[in-house]
Design brief:
The protein is built from 6 helices and 17 strands. It is elongated, with a radius of gyration of 25 Å. Bound molecules: 2-acetamido-2-deoxy-beta-D-glucopyranose (NAG). 2-acetamido-2-deoxy-beta-D-glucopyranose binds next to loops.
């Protein structure tokens, strides 16, 4: 899909900055979902409306003079937020509905975890925009379309934030996992500042819909978005603390990313022509040395990529030969024939092609994945999938999929 206009996202940031005041840290857990108790209005006056017997429903509206928004009274240091939401129906072009976490933006080095829902003309899909900021830096966007009409019913949108990862979920299906790779020397991860929960409905028709081409139809105002039945879990022993992908949720996420992802900053080689952000390298999966996997090359035929050897039988070969025109330091160092003959040794081979052999279902488990990451971090010296100079027109198609878990 098209490239993002970064300046426009800066204007999102500015609007959010305007909403911030001083905060306090809390560690309480609750799941009552009472908007009056846990949230306060940030702008829009009576465009923020709380209803329901236990104040479990809230609506935000937007007209030509103002949008509206609310935020949590408390700040949180990790946790999980679930919010049921239903978006502006009909022609919602130019409107943006949000649910996000943010630390105090007045510091200039704020952290933020975003869900933004960009409206569209009637019958065209909303865009779900996600981003992560750490210490004032963002530019980690992924965008999706949804597999349902988010204006017809309430659906549950969730953010899990723990010291290891940030996960974005819709109705329990993970769309995206953003990991903390500090053990690989990458410090881009929000974990030092508490954050509040924010939500808003506002207008951004200069960029939101089809890149700003479609303007808001104010004759349809006021526009209304609905929030209800939220749950905030930051209990010390909550499941959110160790939440991660299991086999099933990983499968679900792959399905979403294959079918509904429309933008991923980690595959935007035009934007990051000098170098991709460092974490992009690690969100990839991939021959064994002493049982440690070095590389996994997957068959993505279910994603329409036919590059995988599977139609011709193969023999095993091995050899020792001379190639001093290129092999060592690019051909600069030549073979010293005074040391010949040169000898290499092979022994104890094993070939398993038994019909029910373990090789048949061999895949990475948690431990081998860890070992492979260690090898790739410390010993990998070249990967064609990050050679943007060589593939400046387009990377081979499988590079896209060897990403995200
Ligand atoms: C709106 O619809 C168009 C056409 O289907 C689509 O390309 C775009 O991603 C949709 N969302 C936004 C926010 O423009």
């Amino acid at each position: 899909m098209g490239t993002l206009s970064i300046g426009h996202y800066d204007s999102v940031l500015l609007l959010k900055v305007a909403m911030v005041v001083v905060a306090m840290v809390s560690s309480t857990a609750y799941g009552a979902g009472n908007f009056r108790n846990e949230f306060e209005s940030t702008f829009g006056g009576d465009r923020v409306r709380i209803s329901g017997p236990s104040s479990e429903q809230l609506s935000l509206s937007l007209d030509q003079s103002s949008g509206s928004g609310f935020r949590s009274k408390k700040e949180y240091m990790f946790g999980r937020i679930d919010m049921q939401m239903k978006f502006v129906a009909g022609n919602s072009a130019g409107t943006v509905t949000t649910l996000y976490l943010s630390s105090d933006q007045s510091t200039g080095r704020h952290d933020e975890i975003d869900f933004e829902f960009l409206g569209n003309v009637t019958g065209q899909p909303y865009t779900l925009h996600t981003n992560v900021f750490s210490q004032g830096q963002g530019s980690r966007e992924q965008q999706f379309h949804l597999w349902f009409d988010p204006t017809a019913n309430f659906h549950t949108y969730s953010i899990v934030w723990n010291p290891q990862l940030i996960m974005f979920l819709v109705d329990e299906t993970p769309l995206r996992v953003f990991r903390n790779y500090e053990n690989k020397g990458i410090s881009f991860f929000p974990k030092h500042q508490p954050q509040r929960i924010y939500a808003s409905l506002w207008e951004a028709d200069d960029w939101a819909t089809q890149g700003g081409a479609v303007k808001t139809d104010w004759s349809k105002a006021p526009f209304t978005a609905y929030y209800r039945n939220f749950n905030i879990d930051n209990s010390p022993n909550g499941k959110w603390r160790t939440h991660d992908l299991d086999a099933n949720s990983r499968k679900r996420m792959k399905w979403v990313q294959k079918n509904y992802m429309i933008y991923d900053y980690c595959s935007d080689w035009k934007r990051f022509s000098q170098a991709f952000p460092p974490e992009c390298k690690h969100s990839k999966a991939e021959f064994l040395v002493d049982e440690t996997p070095l590389r996994v090359f997957r068959n993505y035929e279910n994603k329409g990529i036919s590059f995988f050897p599977k139609h011709q039988p193969q023999r095993i070969y091995a050899s020792l030969w001379e190639a001093d025109d290129w092999a060592t330091q690019g051909g600069a160092v030549k073979t010293d024939w005074s040391k010949a003959p040169f000898t290499a040794y092979y022994r104890n081979f094993n070939i398993d092609n038994s019909p029910n052999g373990k090789w048949r279902t061999h895949d990475l488990d948690a431990n081998s994945r860890k070992r492979m990451k260690w090898v790739q971090k410390n010993y990998m010296i070249y990967d064609y999938c990050t050679d943007w100079k060589r593939f400046s027109q387009a990377f081979p198609p499988e590079c896209k999929h060897s990403k995200a878990e």
